[in-house]
Amino acid sequence: MSLRVRLTLQYSALTGGILLIFGGLIFALVNGLLYTQVDNALLSTYNEMVTGWRVAPDGAINPKITPKFNLSENIYYQFWDTHDLLRFTSPGVRLLGGSLDQAGLQAGHNIFRDVYAAVGHLRVLSVPLEAGERPIGTLQIAADMGIVDTTRNALLFGIVVTFLASMVFAASVAWLSTGRALAPLGAITASALKISRADDLSRRIPNPVPGDDEVGQLIDAFNDTLGRLEQLFTSQQRFLADVSHELRTPLTVIKGNVNLMRRIGQADDESLSSIEEEADRLTRLVGDLLLEAQAETGRLPLNFAPLEMDTLLLEVFKEMRVLARDRLTVKLTEIDQIQVNGDRDRLKQVLINLISNAIKYTPNGGEVYLSLSRVGDTARIIVRDTGPGIPSEDLPHIFERFYRAEKSRTRSKVGGFGLGLSIAFWIVNNHGGKIEVDSAEGKGTTFCIYLPIYNPPAMPPVTD
Ligand code: ADP
User: Fold this and answer.
1) d(CA 449, CA 434)
2) What would the mean pLDDT of 278-289 be, rounded to a whole number?
3) Ligand 1 site residues, Cβ closer than 6 angstroms
4) Could you tell me the pTM of the whole model?
5) Ligand 1 atom 16: the closest Cα is on which residue?
6) Chain Cα centroid distance, residue 39
7) What is the rounded CA–CA span in Å between residue 119 and residue 116?
8) Mean pLDDT value of segment 13-19
9) Where does residue 362 rank: exposed (0-12), middle (13-18), buried (19+ CB within 10 A)?
10) Which residue minimizes the CA distance to atom 26 of ligand 1?
11) Do residues 34 and 152 touch, judged by C-beta distance below 8 A?
């Protein structure tokens, strides 16, 4: 069953239920009021009738109908004595050929009953009368319920007609309004199908009123997801192309050098170095890919232990100075003694990734500054360079997997695979820290890492 039909049915059922309860209450109330009125009229008729009645010693009654007692056509009465003889009656009732209410005669106490006789629906009050302690008979007074029934039926008819009309109206309104509200969902489904059929992630679902209501928000969210998917897809495609290229170049170089050595019949030093360099590059690429895959699937284990961050930074600093050679200067400007709780190898990798990037991208003669200092209860490591900076359009993406700024991609000899920063980001995050970047084109780049400082647990006090 479609959502539209379901909503329409639910809405109509709810409206119908409310109307039924409401109509039932009105009917019960009016019915009760009408009966109360009739019963009150019967009681006051009774009171007027018996006022001033005389009972002879033999039990005979002298009915005295006072002038103000004006029995209408709609009120009937009968008096039956204890021997079930009809002693007196209002005109015409004799035609009934019996008691107004036989069961009322037997009741032996005051009773109101509905009787359906030949003359129609009657409401009958039966009252047993006594003279002193002696029962003398039963007086029955009846009212014609014709008008009451007509009123009740008219009310019932009105309620049923109103109920049916309201149901039709409610169902139509629900059908139309849910149709209008759900129409964009149809458009979303159609667009989603088009997108998946055409394999075209660049399409977006048109949103007439962005974010205005739930459906608008759904469209926005869907378009955002498509945007993310498109970005991921593009970067993966780019990555595949890059990786194939990166793999082919060293393999071609290796093969060329091997052929050369075979031709000249001896191992040539230059060729061997070139082969080694390319093999290192391949190893790095495979290592990065493996790490990224492990981090992605949450299977990269971290071995936490208290760690002297200053010692680690010093170690990396020395290694990186060798990497920079005379090309540029690497300086350690500040180093505090700080302990963190972390995985030594992984944190070393973060430092190497950031510092080697700074060295890689900073042109000859530039400078790279490193520092480690305590900021509140965090250790802050800064890697700053005087390189070309990162264009503002690339800055929000550099921590994404496989992302490489356009300039670095074209200078493929310098650039890596776009995995270094995303791995660093993952590692720092999983140490409860954060990594920030500040960069502007032509003004160099600064990376800041914040890691929680390790506080050794307090030793228990020594007792004698
Ligand atoms: P890559 O292996 O390409 O260096 P990274 O993930 O380490 O990948 O860096 C992503 C991109 O960020 C790089 O391609 C480069 O464009 C940019 N980048 C990173 N560090 C620097 C830096 N110090 N100076 C300029 N650009 C940088």
Assistant:
1) 6
2) 86
3) 353, 357-358, 361, 385, 387, 390, 398, 403-405, 408, 415-422, 445
4) 0.53
5) 405
6) 59
7) 8
8) 92
9) buried
10) 390
11) yes
